[in-house]
Design a protein that fits this description.
Helix content: 10-25%
Order of helices and strands: HEEEEEHHEEE
Largest sheet: 6 strands, antiparallel
Shape: globular
Oligomer: single chain
Strand order of the largest sheet: 1-4-5-8-7-6
Structural class: alpha+beta
Length: 145
């Protein structure tokens, strides 16, 4: 019984805490320009992010931007079927359900951050009208079959 309890606690800890590291924006929050097809840095502030080496799908980021939705939609490539993946509960700036609902209802817009940031994985960026932004990785068409 004690072994099972210890194993359960260890598995829980490993899944939710052990593999995640806090990350910075690195070379910036980037979105793909619809004319050039190249990712470019967008204005951002207050970036918080997590990632893990164990899976390319564990990346999540939260930030703010002063760029308007009108400017973003004229400049950057939209992303169809954006589906934010849930983050660990302790990373409380990223609420995948709320972000997904807002995208479905047109309250937030999803853009291609960078195609194939890892093999078969795209970085997706969603922006709300108030400037809140969120980024995550999601499988692209290579692995969706």
């Amino acid at each position: 019984m004690i072994t099972a309890l210890i194993s359960g606690v260890a598995i829980y800890y490993l899944q939710l805490y052990a593999f995640y590291d806090e990350v910075s924006a690195g070379d910036g929050v980037r979105m793909t320009n619809m004319v050039t097809g190249q990712p470019e840095i967008v204005l951002y502030d207050s970036f918080e992010g997590i990632d893990a080496d164990s899976s390319p799908l564990r990346y999540r980021g939260c930030f703010t931007t002063t760029m308007s939705l009108a400017m973003l939609t004229e400049t950057f490539e939209p992303y169809e079927d954006a589906t934010p993946l849930t983050a660990p509960g302790w990373f409380d700036c990223f609420d995948a359900v709320a972000i997904g609902t807002a995208i479905e209802q047109g309250e937030a817009l999803a853009f291609l951050g960078e195609r194939n940031i890892k093999d078969g994985v795209d970085r997706v960026v969603a922006i709300f009208p108030d400037g809140r932004g969120f980024a995550w990785h999601q499988l692209n068409e290579k692995y969706q079959e």
